Amino acid sequence: TGGGFGNTAFGSGGPAPNQGGYQPPVGRQRLDPKDFMWMQRTGETLVKEPGSVDGQQFIIDGCVDCDLWIFDHNAAITIDDCKNCRIFIGPCDSSVFIRDCYDCKCVFMCRQFRTRTCEDCDFQLYCATRPVIETSKRLRFGCIDFTYEGEEKHMAATKMSKFTNYWSNIHDFTKAPGNWSFLPPQTRAQDLVAPLPKAACLPAGGTPARAPFFLKTWGEQKPPSHEMAFVLLPPGPDQAAKAETMLAQMHAAGMTLVHTNMVKLDHDTAKQLMGEATEHEVRGSAQTLARALVKDKSIGLEWNGTGVMRVAESLLPPGELVCTSSTMCSGMFRYMGIEG
User: Fold this and answer.
1) Residue 309 belongs to what domain range?
2) Same domain, yes or no, for 194 and 329?
3) How many domains does the structure of the chain reveal?
4) Is the peptide bond before 24 cis (omega within 30 degrees of 0)?
5) Which cellular component, as a GO term, is one annotated location (predicted)?
6) CATH number of the domain residue 275 falls in
7) What are the tens digits of pLDDT across the range 208-255?
8) CA-based nearest residue to 81, from 46, 114, 40
């Protein structure tokens, strides 16, 4: 099997706990690697509650007909030789690497995602970089829509933004027809990995009491309409609040969120982007906006739907921003940071 820590440091620093002579720092409990492995399990439901992994690496290997749930942030995940399993992975600070797995249903939150030699697997993803597949067949992908208590805190621990999700930008090293496709847009995570386990971080009955933390985007699928609107919100103390308000209002108006991103622009890119937007598409002072765009990360929201520009313009928050139908502007901003 492909699992094992090898020479990789276990956790955030220092030698692996199973190496001779290792002593944990004073006041820190020694970690047992067995607490961070599920190996050769069959027909079991296994759950790691928030705080039980706490940023460590985790290995899943040789599991069959299992329901595997990690409700915690983690350093890295390797999944090998699993068959007919339902697997949930909370925010992963580096990579989820799944190899030689068959007929699995997965919901992952990760910075990097990679498969090798997997078949007939479904994935709902949050992925902060471009997902990569290799020598794999009949994989299906969708955008994550799962919620559990603590996921926002765990995302903050990994310093990943919910606005940066490239789940649909699949890079296939071994391109061939039938290697991968998209899940039906109506697919829900809780149905994909059902049945949900009994866990303190899940709401009773499986129905969240609040809106999902993650943003459900349409991604690279063929959009439902030929009309689009791109809204660029510059950095500022009320940036997040403006984005959340507009998200709620646009969804209520029946518009489809296609892409989001959150990235800092350099001077040349900011100038180019501003140049693509027409004068009436820049709200407020163009000079003030241009200066703001290079100070910190901006949030871009790309929408689709009939009459979407008219709807977006009617719901714009106050202050400097860009609201444009320019595919050049949206395309320029959409893929920034996709390679990490």
Assistant:
1) 228-334
2) no
3) 2
4) no
5) cilium
6) 3.30.70.141
7) 556 778 999 999 999 999 999 999 999 999 999 999 999 999 999 999
8) 40
